[in-house]
Amino acid sequence: MNDEALSGWRSRLAEKGEQVAFLKDFLKNLFRGGFEWSEFIRQCYEIGYKSFTLVGTTAFIMGLVMAMQLRPTLISFGAESMLPKSLAVSIIKEIGPVITAIICAGKIASGIGAELGSMKVTEQIDAMEVSGANPMQFLVVTRILATTAMVPLLTLLGDVLGLLGGFLAININGSVSLLLYFNKCIASLGFSDLLPAFIKTIFFGFVIGFIGCYKGYNSNKGTESVGIAANSAVVVASLWIFVIDAIVVQVSNTLIY
Amino acid sequence: MWDLTTKETASVQEHENVLHIKGLKKSFGKKEVLRDIDLDVKRGENVVVLGKSGSGKSVIIQCIVGMISPDAGVLQVFGEEVSSLNEKELKKLRTRIGFLFQSGALYDSMTVRENMEFPLMRILKLRNQAEIDKRVEEVLKSVGLFESIDKMPSDLSGGMRKRAGLARTLVLNPELMLYDEPTTGLDPITSREISNLVLQIQKKYKTTAIIITHDMECAAITADRVLVLSDGEFIAEGSFEAIKNSKDKHVSSFFK
Fold first, then answer.
1. Are residues A123 and B101, on separate chains, in Cβ contact within 8 Å?
2. Contact: B94, A132; criterion CB under 8 Å
3. Which of B36, B41, B113, B211 is the most buried (most CB within 10 A)?
C-alpha cells in the first residue's frame, strides 16, 4: 500500500474516531440538564413543519406512480384486487420511510450542515464557547432530537399521502371507495410490519441530525467548507439511511420470522 | 527584547496581575507560531499587541481563553493555570473574560436584543425579564446601539456589528477584555469610533484589555503599553510613543 492510500485510510479512521467522540459529547450533553426547550421547539418547526409540503407532495406522487406502474403487472396475473395490499406493504414497510428519509437527508441534513458550517466560519460557535455558554447543548442536542422526533412524523404523513396517491391512481381507471381502499390497506398490515418500519424512522431521524450537525460543527474555517459540509452531510446521511434500512430489515426478519 | 518602558507604563505595574504568561510555545504542524512569549498584564491596563498578519497575535488570546492549548509554558489568568482547569472551571473562568471577535460573531438567527439576552439567560441564568431588559438596554446605550435593539445582524453595518458584539461581551461585566482586530475591515472614521469606544469601556467598566491589532491609530488611541510580535516572540515593549520612535528596523517598519 502506498503512502497516499495509507494516509487516506488513516484520515478516514480518524474521522470515525471524531464521530464517536462527537456522539459521546452529544450523549453527555443530552443528560446534563438545562435542556433548551424553546430552541428544540423552534427546530421542530423549522425541520418538521417546513418539510411537510415537500415530503407530502413527493409521497403522494410516489404512491400515485407506484399504483399506475403496479396495476398492469397485477392485471396480467389476474390479481388487480391485490393492488391496495401491494401498495400498503411497499409504502408502509419500505418506500415511505426510505423516501422520506432521503428527502430529509437532502433538505434537513444539508441545511443543518450549512447552517452550523457558516456559524463555524463566522466564529459564532467559538463566540458561544468562549462566553461560557454550551454550543453543543444549544445547537447540536436540540437539532438531533428535533430530527429524531420529526422524521417519524413526516414518514407517517408521507405514508398516508402515498396511500392517498395510490387511491387516486386506482380511481382513475376503476372505482373503489376510500373506506374500502383503506380497509384493504390496513387489513394487509400486521403489527410486525408496522413496528420495524416505525423504529427505523427513529434511527433515520437520528442519523440525519447527527451527520448534519457533525459535518457542520467540524467544518474547516473557510467559505468553501460550508459547501463541503452541506454536501458531505447529504452524501453520508443518505448512505447511512440505506445501511440502517438493511440492518433493521435483517434484524426484524430474524426476530419475527 | 527592546525594553522601551516609560514612566506612564511603569506606574500601572503596582496593581494586581490579571494575566501571567511565561515561556509560552505553540506550533501548528511544523510551523512554530509562538516561540517564547512572556507577558504580564496588570488590572486596568490596556495592552496592545502589534504584529503582521499571520504572526500569531490571535493565537495568544485564543490560548488565554482556552480555545487553543499551548504546547509549553505558563499561562495564568486571574492566578489560575488555564491548561490545568477542568471543563467546569474553564467555563467559570470564561465568564470573567470578554472576547470580541474580528467579525463581531453575532448569532445571525437572533435579533440584537436576543444576542444580548443569550448570555444573560444561559450563563448568568437570569429569569427576571425586567432585569434582563434593563441590562440589555443599559449596555446597548453604552455602545450607542439602542436604536438597533430589534434589528437582525444582517441589517447592521460593519461598525454596528462590532459595537453589538462588544455589547454582548460587556453584558456579562467581564474583568478582562480580549479584542481580536477590533478595527479590521472598517473605514477610518468608524475605526476611530471603535478605538475610542474601547477606551471608554476601559474607563466605565474598569476592564483590563488585550487588543490585537495592526492598526496604528487604534494602538495610539487605546494602548497603555504596546508589545510588538515578530517571528513568534515579542521584539519590543513600551508606550506607543516609545515604540513609534524605536530605531529597530523591524519595529519601525510598522510605522512606514
1. yes
2. yes
3. B211
